[in-house]
Amino acid sequence: MKQMLMHVDGDALRTAVLQDGKLVEFFMERSGGGSLVGNVYKGRVVNVLPGMEAAFVDIGLGKNAFLYIDDMLHPNADKQPKQKPSVTELAKSGQEIIVQVVKDQLGGKGARVTTHFNLAGRWLVYMPRADYVGVSKRINGDAERERLKALGERLRRDEEGIIMRTAAEGEEAAALESDVFMLRELWQSVSSRASAVRAPALLHSEAGLLHRVVRDSLTRDIDEIWIDSPSIFSEAKKLLTNMAPALKERLRLYKGTGAFGLFQEFRVSEQIEEAFSRRVPMSSGGYLIWEETEALTVIDVNTGKYTGTNNLEDTVYRTNLEAAELISRLLRVRDVGGIVIIDFIDMQQEESRSKIYARMTEEAKRDGTKCTIVGWTKLGLMELTRKKVRENAGKQIGEVCKACGRSSASDRTSS
After folding, report:
1. CA atoms within 13 A on the CB side of 224
2. Residue 281 CB neighbour total at 10 angstroms
3. How many domains does the chain have?
4. What is the DSSP letter of 60?
5. Max Cα–Cα distance, the chain, nearest Å
6. Within this chain, do residues 362 and 318 fall inside the same structural domain, yes or no?
7. CA 5 – CA 17 distance, rounded (Å)
8. Which of 138, 137, 169 has its CA nearest to residue 151?
């Protein structure tokens, strides 16, 4: 049973995804303080830095946005010059330029932007200048991949590009064509506005959390969608009518009482508290120590009270295997981005190490955010990277107390 729960708490919308009662994903957004990723701006180049192969662009956010040279080249790698030009050939101070945010302002850094534009629909991603058709790697059938690729080629015009999303699998051509038409119209509107305004100016604002969740995360494998706000329920129903009418019957309005009734009834509050704590227990009796810094996330695996069998290697392997599965799930729940280093318990046998690596790789395939398992370092640590796009949920819902290791998230998700 897979369930999605949407809880409205004042100005915040919190969304939890449960698989057989276990928290596997968590999203949160406050009104007026949402992510800027996907927004399109008309900006002005402030300065060009040849040594960094980048330019800083004023898009009206206070902090200048960072535009790397690779994000100024043609979005289709096959059409890029064999010899990369100097950034000074592509950008000049005072130049007006249209850009899209690909990474939010994090810490003291401004947003990262690109000229590789994309607009997401329910079934596909529209790229006005990419000049190619791609198909989600999660669609495995060769026949279906070929069908979608051929359909994409038929639907696109001139230099347009299209990526068929996982949700496009099995969909009729009419639905995909409708997505292309809507997104093409949207891009034409953005282009028209760009011609009429002076930089810096917002040209297009990405949809809010509810719209993104319905568009990107409501898949056929979601059995129930619970919402505890009548107004959000009504809005979600309208969105599903347009995007995925077949899922409308899975909507449920929660009518329980209490400020956090929905999350309490489904045990989400306690799972969030546990997931965002510094010390995270494992069912075997072992535990994780989770430390997040500006540069990277470090996770230490400990056996704790788990004594396992008489075979030390087997005990260590089983603890590490459980930890690998738990860490993979918590990376999604916490929405951790950047470099992650895991200090698994030392294993003597190479076969055990290979199995842990294989399990981490398999779990990464389930992640909707790009996650790359780099492998074991010379010091015996597991290294991986996960795409950092938005501020992770932990920083939005509360800080971890340095004295007790308890997350203040619990104070805001339970009464």
Report:
1. 14
2. 14
3. 4
4. S
5. 75
6. yes
7. 6
8. 169
